[in-house]
Amino acid sequence: MTTSARRTALRTMKAVRIHEYGNGNVLRYEDAPVPDIAPDDLLVRAVAASVNPVDWKVREGHLRSMIRHPMPLTLGWDVSGVVEAIGAEVTRFKVGDAVFSRPDIQRNGTYAEYVAVRESEAAHKPRTISHVEAASLPLAGITAWEALLAAGRLAAQQRVLIHAGAGGVGSLAVQLARAQGAHVIATASASNRALVWSLGADEVIDYRSQRFSDAVRDVDLVFDTIGGETQELSWSVLKPGGTLVSIISPPSQDRALALGMHGAFVFIEPNAAILAELAGRVDMGKLRPIVGAEFALEDVAKAHAFSETGRAVGKIVLYVGRP
Question: At what angle do helices 138-145 and 168-179 cross, to 10 degrees?
Fold first, then answer.
């Protein structure tokens, strides 16, 4: 194919976009222009993307006060694919490289055949797993890493309680905490207990039959992935000086101060250095992504509906293009 023909072929692509905020009915699978790239961008041909709760929260308009997205907006902020083109200032990647990324949430996302990603937001894809598995890692992996190791400062021999240990973030958090040498306690349904044990949990509490606040005491760190009543009850299981880290809502600093504890809230940014660390652990057999459901890109409304139930095991992944 000539350069001219190639450019013509790349003028349009299939993407899932929203033209207004709303429920799953606002998702449109349609033709869209292939994004232009800046000098520090990669144009990535997406093979797979994944669905995260932030996707449908953006779709519903819950983040509009924080992020002013222009419409129409392509959703999705996880991708694994192949570099199609590079900007003039790119030095770490070349055309044909397999990469994965959690791109900037303020830009158009990854529910598309092509996405523009800054070089600083991408890392080489783990060699030993598929694009589908790699697409499940970036946002959840960075979240788990920053919550446990950065905000929570989890150390060997400490006790950590991880809520929703079978979920997309929780399943990675259990593995990272185990690798850190911590004693890992996780909540999960009875049907997911074996999975969470296999990921490295020392104790698994069936949240449907037992209140975690009755079963756990004196933990150094709680990782809250649920919020609401679960977050409030989590204070009671911490030891003095312990830390509650949430990715749902900021823990009360007044409550933390009164109890002699610490609270932290994590809302991640792209982080290629953490992605490289995750890829290394995957390729050494020390971390495995859990993909619990797979959908075609055009079926993203079904994927969103499933994510909104809060019942997904591991990550929900979208097929976008050929490997």
Answer: 50
User: What residues does 83 pair with on adjacent strands?
Assistant: 44
Phi, psi of 206 (to 5 degrees): -75, 105
Beta bridge partners, 206, equal: 188
| Domains of the chain and CATH, by start | 3-137+289-319 (3.90.180.10), 140-265 (3.40.50.720)
pLDDT along the chain (323 residues), means of 10: 44 96 98 97 98 97 92 98 97 98 97 98 98 98 98 98 98 98 98 97 95 96 97 97 97 96 97 98 97 98 96 96 90
For the residues of 146-210, what is the DSSP string, one character each?
IIIIIIS---TT-EEEESSTTBHHHHHHHHHHHHTT-EEEEEE-GGGHHHHHHTT-SEEEETTTS
Contact 266, 246 (CB under 8 A): yes
Tokens of 220: 């150094």
Question: How far is Cα 227 from Cα 238, in angstroms, rounded to an integer?
Answer: 16
Residue 221 tokens read as 């760190």
pTM here?
A: 0.94
Burial of 185 (0-12, 13-18, 19+ CB in 10 A): buried
pLDDT of 124: 98
